[in-house]
UniProtKB/TrEMBL annotation, chains A, B:
Residues 6-63 form the HTH lysR-type domain. Gene3D superfamilies: Periplasmic binding protein-like II, Winged helix-like DNA-binding domain superfamily/Winged helix DNA-binding domain. One of its GO terms (biological process) is DNA-templated transcription. This is LysR family transcriptional regulator, glycine cleavage system transcriptional activator. It comes from Chitinimonas taiwanensis DSM 18899. Keywords: DNA-binding, Transcription, Transcription regulation. GO terms for molecular function: DNA-binding transcription factor activity; sequence-specific DNA binding. The lineage of its organism: Bacteria, Pseudomonadati, Pseudomonadota, Betaproteobacteria, Neisseriales. SUPFAM superfamilies: Periplasmic binding protein-like II, Winged helix' DNA-binding domain.
DNA sequence: CAGGTTCTGTGAGTTAAACTCACACAATGA
DNA sequence: TCATTGTGTGAGTTTAACTCACAGAACCTG
């Protein structure tokens, strides 16, 4: 990371002073004089170019900007402190922690987890979800599921499930506004997620209607929220197949259009290189590949 | 935070050296000599008590411990760098960002979002999800939904929806192993989440069977994963009502037992004090309260 | 195999950040 | 009005961070 960092030692003083709303109390906590804290805060404010505290008669109170900065600085420093504490006290537990992107966890992995556990009752799985790049996770993991291929230094990865996208929506939506061609999407709300920002534009281009303006768009922080919104009749989502096949089979979602069907980046399992010595990881990754082969488009052989 | 922080300036050198796997390259990036970087790394390793790099013949490579530390240090430093950049370039947008805990977003809020948008087409909502304490979020928000009451300095909050918990499961589960009394739970897998770690123990205690040992327990990182697992027939979850009423009505979940029904901490909206000057926040919070009053247990008047 | 190149390790000395000390000023409370 | 508490800051001190110079090791090339 080459982004500009502020004077880091000053952050320690800032965090304490802001949390306690007192330079003197912060000085006590940090075992320095209040003058040191005062100078550090002044240095930080000068460097940032904005006041972080309001002063009134020997008392300080965070400004709104200072408050916003504090919560993020605390988050950053907490992560560093926690990482440091963990490093000093390794906590070795025997379980496989899977960190999956939320949509995959909910619509593909979770419905199959029971089968895995019946087949492997001796393996304890713990499922976490995150959209983040694996290099930026708060907690360690043994296996990650992310869309790929991708660049994951220090890890082994392998694609195991391809994906294609089609417009999907609740059947009730079509009763009010039928969709027979891509042009009909102009009457609808298109649902999208931060994690797939260009999906609709790409699909519309392939469909031959790049300039189409929908009635509205609805943005969600996570794709699974967009999918749930579609099930709730809020609009049309570009649904991933074969992941949503169960919902199509159940009739909670329908695919009004069959073309174009865009093949997009599929799913990879990702493990730290050191974890590849663990046979349990092999059991799990083989199981993932077998499940993918039996339900949808397993990728052609591709090196990790 | 009074947790021990390592020498912070050394982290800057460590991050660069670790990312580039070169002290000389790190020195170039940081505009210091390689000797400065070497000394900083040595200081950090001495302070932590563990080597972070393997040395071989003038080359360095991260140890496994060093690698794990790097990803977390990078995360922490990135948050600080991003907070710093945001502070310098305020990005003022006109939209309401809601940060809700995932379960509430999916099962209560999202099904109602369409109604809100039809009633208020001029307000753009952006829905984010997180379990984190609001003081530790990566991104700013205008309104948060968390379970409470709670202590949220600098914010205004108000409970608007109470909650009670009952064992819920898929109907297919009862076909194989009926549940007529709390003792019957011994034959089942109890599903739980990190965010509600003591829920089952409390419920079993109230049910008069504190020593009951279930066939298994299954832990999930998020409560909504536990709920989805229950719908997929993986076990019994302590389901929140009235949130899951729609699923009970639809038959995807059933409540085999009606007692004891535990009233637990419900839901609060939380807004930064400064945001209370914004009339849009009032529109949204009043709408939340009205929706809660019409669907479930609205709390007795309680100050924020 | 020898020499050159590149990279890290470290002692000695230098520089600058961090700190202490002491005093000044302001708000609050008794 | 005076005492108390807290912040601001200049001057001086201390220590972390740094440069400089040299040494050692691995790798590459001729």
């Amino acid at each position: 990371m080459t982004a500009t960092l502020p004077p880091l030692n000053a952050l320690r003083a800032f965090e304490a002073a802001a949390r306690l709303e007192s330079f003197s109390a912060a000085a006590g906590e940090l075992f320095v004089t209040h003058g040191a804290v005062s100078k550090q805060i002044k240095q930080l404010e000068d460097w940032l170019g904005v006041p972080l505290f309001e002063r009134s008669g020997g008392r300080v109170k965070l400004t709104e900007v200072g408050w916003r900065y504090l919560v993020q600085v605390q988050d950053g420093l907490d992560i560093i402190a926690n990482a440091t504490a963990q490093l000093k006290q390794p906590d070795r537990q025997r379980r496989i922690v899977i960190n999956s992107i939320p949509t995959f966890a909910m619509f593909w992995l979770l419905p199959r987890l029971g089968a895995f556990q019946r087949e492997h009752p001796d393996i304890e799985l713990r499922l976490m979800t995150s959209d983040r790049d694996i290099s930026r996770l708060d907690a360690p993991f043994d296996l990650a599921i992310r869309r790929g291929p991708g660049d994951w230094p220090g890890h082994v990865s392998k694609p195991f499930l391809e994906e294609r996208e089609l417009p999907l929506c609740a059947p009730s939506l079509l009763e009010r506004l039928p969709i027979h061609s891509p042009q009909d999407l102009a009457q609808h709300t298109l649902l999208q997620a931060d994690t797939r920002p260009t999906a609709w534009q790409r699909w519309l281009t392939l469909a031959g209607v790049p300039e189409l303006k929908p009635a509205a768009t609805q943005q969600f922080g996570h794709f699974y929220l967009a999918l749930r919104a579609a099930m709730n009749g809020l609009g049309v989502v570009l649904g991933p197949l074969p992941m949503m096949q169960a919902e199509l089979d159940a009739g909670t979602l329908v695919a009004p259009l069959q073309e174009p069907s865009v093949v997009v980046r599929g799913y990879c399992w990702i493990a730290p290189r050191a974890a590849m010595n663990d046979p349990t990881i092999h059991v799990l990754t083989r199981w993932l590949e077998q499940q993918a082969a039996s339900t949808g488009i397993a990728p052609q052989s591709q090196p990790g």
